TrEMBL record:
Domain DNA2/NAM7 helicase helicase: 218-334
One Pfam family cited in the UniProt record for this chain: AAA_11
Protein name per Swiss-Prot or TrEMBL: AAA family ATPase
Lineage top rank: taxon: Bacteria
InterPro entries, sorted: DNA2/NAM7_AAA_11, P-loop_NTPase
Single GO MF descriptor: helicase activity
Length: 455
């Protein structure tokens, strides 16, 4: 705020203006939230008083303010002094030789946010004030009212311009373009895993194909399913949970299905956020009617120009073929998704169907956990097994019982159980083995004769 009793008049004006939204909270307090609109300099009063150097300062300050606005690391805010303090100090110094920037006054209490008294010294304060201004009438509303009066006053339909007739006529349901493929509004069957943990929950469930351009999660898809059944769905969530993200997806889906969508919000910024979530191909068709006249007119003009350009260049036959090709591609993707879902259900069923082990029925995952936890007990298993057919056991329970009985019967006679058996290639061949056998017999016979002779 600038306050000054100039020789040609009294000033009490804001030097910088920032549009804000003010909301009344439940406890009676007011919340002041800056809009996304850029701040503006207000120096016209200084120009009107022929203050020397005011126009030159206005040019320099406008450039400085624009640099602040364009710098993503600063982000102008009336609550952040570093984003505007330099401009206010410059204004105090350049608009009057005796000008003062109030926070720099000697002995000033920093907690005192009251406005300075207006005297012959220009004082510019960093204190902000709120101005409530009446909104100018929206020119679009005036045009619509004029159109309504013209329609109501016309005696024949021919008296109304064709554009006006189309404006008040509901759109036709006739399909302009042909093409095969899928019907975007029809339901399809998609397999899904239920909320339970049993095999009975693994059943395909009725669903719609949602044409979402942005990534989504299960919670957001659940909201979309609810909208198919109930036209009024109340969704609450803290910032960052993806509400705007979901709204952008739902708008895109409904437009793809040939529906019209109206979005309302408490502020223009919320509509801007939703508009930015839309694909670029349809973003120009989203017009915010609560923006300023200039912004709203710009968006409306952009949409009209895009439609006019598309209408002039469109080739109906080519577009029909492209629509058919893309719908067929969507159908192929949908079929692939169904096949993957069936595979996932099969995998889930394998892990959720109980198997018999140690006399009880357990889940495969529990059995695997038991094996992992007791792996130290089975470290002597050197086989690297898998689930292939070649590793299927070649013996039955009877063979295992016989082997166990034989092991018990042999007992300590199994002397070689901890020894390494020789390799067959290391054993002597048959001729050498027979020769050794004959030598052994001869040696035994000679020994017997020697013992007989001694007797």
């Amino acid at each position: 705020m600038a306050r000054w009793k100039h020789e040609r008049g009294k000033l009490s004006i804001p030097v910088l203006e920032q549009l804000v939204d003010v909301e009344l909270e439940e406890d009676g307090s007011l919340s002041v939230m800056p809009r996304q609109a850029s701040p503006v300099l207000n120096l016209k009063a200084f120009h009107a008083l022929d203050v020397e150097g005011s126009k030159a300062f206005a040019r320099d300050a406008a450039e400085q303010l624009q640099r602040v606005i364009d710098d993503p690391d600063i982000l102008f805010s009336p609550f952040t002094k570093k984003t505007f303090e330099t401009i206010l100090k410059s204004a105090a110094a350049r608009l009057s030789a005796s000008g003062v920037y109030v926070p720099d006054e000697e002995g000033r209490d920093e907690t005192n946010r009251k406005l300075s008294v207006a005297d012959d010294t220009l004082r510019i304060s960093d204190t902000w004030v709120l101005y409530a201004r009446n909104r100018a009438e929206d020119f679009r509303k005036a045009d619509i009212s004029k159109l309504i009066r013209s329609v109501e006053g016309a005696e024949k339909i021919e008296e109304i311009p064709e554009a006006g007739v189309r404006f008040v006529t509901p759109p036709s349901d006739e399909k302009i373009y042909g093409g095969g493929g899928i019907d975007l509004g029809q339901a399809s069957w998609r397999a899904g895993v239920g909320e339970g943990s049993g095999v009975a929950d693994l059943q395909p469930k009725a669903a719609h194909d949602f044409f979402f351009p942005l990534a989504t999660n299960a919670d957001q898809e659940a909201i979309a399913y609810r909208l198919e059944e109930d036209p009024a769905v109340h969704v609450m969530g803290p910032p960052g949970t993806g509400k705007t993200h979901l709204i952008g997806n739902i708008i895109s889906h409904y437009l793809a299905c040939g529906k019209r969508v109206l979005v309302t919000a408490k502020s223009a910024e919320a509509l801007v956020a939703v508009r930015e979530k839309l694909p670029e191909g349809i973003r120009a068709l989203a017009i915010s009617v609560i923006h300023s006249d200039r912004e709203g007119a710009g968006q409306l003009e952009e949409a009209i120009q895009m439609l006019a350009s598309e209408a002039k260049q469109i080739n109906v036959a080519q577009v029909s073929r492209e629509i058919g090709d893309k719908q067929n591609a969507l159908a192929d993707v949908s079929d692939r998704i169904k096949a993957i879902d069936v595979e996932l259900i099969d995998y889930a069923r394998r892990n959720l169907e109980k198997v018999s082990a140690a006399g009880s029925d357990v889940l495969p995952m529990d059995l695997a956990r038991t094996v992992v936890e007791g792996q130290s007990t089975f470290l002597w298993f050197t086989d690297d097994l898998d689930l292939g057919a070649r590793f299927e056991p070649q013996f039955g329970d009877g063979d295992i019982r016989d082997a166990r009985a034989a092991r018990i019967a042999l007992g300590d006679d199994i002397a070689y159980r901890s020894q390494d058996l020789p390799i067959a290639a290391d054993l002597p061949d048959m001729p050498n083995l027979l020769a050794a056998h004959r030598d052994l017999l001869a040696a035994n016979l000679a020994g017997d004769r020697a013992r007989s002779a001694k007797r």
